Amino acid sequence: MNLEDIKTVKSILSKPQKIVIIPHKNPDGDAIGSCLGLQSFLLGKGQKATVVSPNDFPKFLKWMPGSDLVLNYERENSEAKKLLEEATVVFTLDFNDLSRTGQLEAVLKEKSADFIMIDHHQQPGDYAKVTYSDVSMSSTCEMVYNFIEYLGEVDGISKDIATNLYTGIMTDTGSFKYRSTSSRTHRVVADLIDRGADNMQIHQQVFDNNSPSRLHLLGVALSNMVILPEYRTAYITLTQQELDEHDFKKGDTEGFVNYGLTLEGINFALIFIENREEGIIKISFRSIGDFSVNEFAREHFNGGGHDNAAGGRSDASMDETVERFNTILKNYKSQLNP
Questions:
Q1: Does the global pTM surpass 0.85?
Q2: Would you tell me how many other CB atoms lie within 10 Å of the CB of residue 237?
């Protein structure tokens, strides 16, 4: 953030505000962690602040401090709409285009409140009065820590704030193994631990509470994996029928795509997941090294994200989507085999 933006934010928060904090649709650990961490910080400053999520978030995040107060726009529509109508400030976290909020997009586009964006994805939109965008950051949670520090309020980081921010940094860095994990990230995490984040307990809550059905679904995903050594690529498919047969819950496929990258010689991994309700195939892309899945997703599958982690979608059937992917992949053989 530059000095002018810091001054603007300080001026906005120097007065009582009605604040709504918005994560992207299908929020992950970084989105929920950053929203809850920021909400707790703002409440501590005497502001009114509510997190309104476009839809539900995974069960493995519902232990997080304050998560029970998150309003689900799909399920608690009337209350959420009222809060949005009254809001004088809207924070948008972990996304940079209002289209990422699903049904909330139309409502947000009509708002005349002050928007403040905090995000680390590429190609930010220009809808916010204050835009704090940095694609080099490990996570939006690390950016919220920085945001609090810029305001000179780092001593106001409570145990709950530290817990939520640690959770988001941990999940978005793949437990601190992705390239975006910097020495600064580790210093932030160390401070969050000093301020009360219990790193072992957080890890157990997120990763060690599997249901039998989720592990069985993982087994199906791994058995469906297709390995293309000539393209250093591996992909997984999961149909709606396979999800239904294993009592799929939101968040159950989190991390499945990364298994492809554990294979020797594989630099590009994907998972194709059928969503019959939305009529799409949801796609997650991961890579190691210089191959940009952000560019690949934007170019071919209506998506985007980071250089090594992105998402996309297809309106075609599973078979048609996979066939199209295999055709496109042929054009990238030299990039995947440098």
A1: yes
A2: 20
Whether 180 and 220 map to the same domain: the answer is no
Quick: pLDDT tens for 77-98: 999 999 999 999 999 999 999 9
Q: Is 237 within 8 Å of 256 (Cβ atoms)? A: no
pLDDT at 179: 85
Rounded CA-CA distance 276/141 in Å is 32
The CATH number covering residue 331 comes to 3.10.310.30
Q: Which domain holds residue 83?
A: 3-207
Per the structure, the count of domains in the chain is: 2
Could you read off the pLDDT of 32-83 as tens digits, one per residue?
999 999 999 999 999 999 999 999 999 999 999 999 999 999 999 999 999 9
72, 93 contact by CB (below 8 A): no
CATH code: domain of residue 100: 3.90.1640.10
| Count of C-beta atoms within a 10 Å radius of residue 232 | 23
226 and 167 co-located in one domain: no
Question: Which residues in the chain belong to E strands, given as ranges?
Answer: 18-22, 48-53, 71-72, 89-93, 114-119, 130-133, 226-228, 233-238, 268-275, 280-287, 304-305, 309-314
Q: Side by side, which strands form the sheet with 89-93?
A: 71-72, 48-53, 18-22, 89-93, 114-119, 130-133
How far is C-alpha 294 from the chain's CA centre? 14
H-helix or E-strand spanning residue 205: helix 199-207
DSSP per residue, 268-312: EEEEEEEETTTTEEEEEEEESTT--HHHHHHHHSS-EE-SSEEEE
Cα 257 to Cα 12, 96, 222, 237, 296: the distances in Å are 41, 24, 10, 10, 16
Count of beta carbons in the 10 Å neighbourhood of residue 244 = 10
Cα distance between residue 320 and residue 280, in whole Å: 12
Q: How many CB atoms lie within 10 A of CB 66?
A: 18
pLDDT score, position 64: 98
User: Are residue 197 and residue 221 in the same domain, yes or no?
Assistant: no
Give bridge partners of residue 269 from the DSSP assignment. 234, 286
